[in-house]
Specification:
Low-confidence stretches: none
Number of helices: 7
Helix content: 25-40%
Radius of gyration: 17 Å
Bound molecules: fructose -6-phosphate
Shape: globular
Number of strands: 10
CATH architecture: 3-Layer(aba) Sandwich
Number of domains: 1
Distance between the termini: 17 Å
Mean pLDDT: 96
Length: about 240
């Protein structure tokens, strides 16, 4: 595991973008596993900039996102599909038909999840998976629990995640209570993992994940078993590292 401790959120974004761009330069038809949330926005901004300068070509890239709220359509501004379009896809030359996000509008959870597992298989697996981390150690929407869920599944979001996500909605009531998310095996099957974190609120989860016991109570702790993980985090998230 390589850990890059950078000064602040901005540096984290730049470093993460460099690693994502390096993957695309090394393998132009890479399958990129992508994440939403506040943490990756700086990296996406930098990727867009490099694309606009003519330095980064997404024409052969495929993407698979970690998760989507159940019940939200792709044109709902709170959906993760919308987020990805806004922050990345609409600003680069990626073929949108090769950008995948779980289908939030598929009411049949089994169908939605099986279809997504099939997509991940069909694209040949993930070359590089970008991950944020929840303050409770979740990755994707794999919340703390009794077992590691293996493949794409429907989750009931925990109170703490609903509270953390409420900032994007008008009220707590509007935050969806369920999501479709890749499972731990889908994530662990990625050839490489890039975990990014910034801010004090992530410090404890990051510490537990990187050095604590491997347990489904801290889903990101499973990453200790992955052979190729890079962590980029800022000083506040890594203040315990000395
Ligand atoms: C997003 C995702 C989540 C976030 C995590 C951190 O697709 O799967 O696991 O990465 O909740 O969110 P932010 O970056 O908003 O702190």
């Amino acid at each position: 595991m390589i850990i890059y401790k950078v000064k602040n959120e901005e540096e984290m974004g730049k470093k993460a973008a460099s690693i994502l761009a390096a993957q695309i330069l090394m393998k132009p038809n890479a399958v990129m596993g992508l994440a939403t949330g506040s943490t990756p926005t700086g990296a996406y901004q930098q990727l867009v900039k490099w694309h606009q300068q003519g330095d980064l070509d997404f024409s052969q890239v495929t993407s698979v996102n970690l998760d989507e709220y159940r019940g939200l359509a792709g044109d709902n501004p709170q959906s993760y599909r919308y987020f990805m379009n806004e922050h990345l896809f609409s600003h680069v030359n990626i073929d949108k038909s090769r950008t995948f996000v779980p289908d939030g509008l598929e009411a049949d959870a089994d169908k939605a999840c099986q279809a997504y597992n099939q997509i991940i298989r069909d694209v040949g697996g993930i070359d590089l998976q970008l991950l944020g981390i929840g303050p409770n150690g979740h990755i994707g929407f794999n919340e703390p629990g009794e077992v590691f869920e293996k493949e794409t599944h429907c989750v009931d979001l925990t109170e703490s995640t609903i509270r953390a996500n409420a900032r994007f909605f008008d009220s707590m009531e509007k935050v969806p209570k369920q999501a479709y998310t890749m499972g731990i095996k889908n994530i662990m099957d990625a050839k490489k993992i890039l975990l990014i974190a910034s801010g004090e609120a992530k410090a404890e989860a990051l510490h537990q994940s990187l050095y604590g016991p491997i347990t489904p109570q801290v889903p990101a702790s499973i990453l200790q078993l992955h052979p190729d993980v890079t962590v980029v985090a800022d000083e506040s998230a890594l203040h315990w590292m000395g």
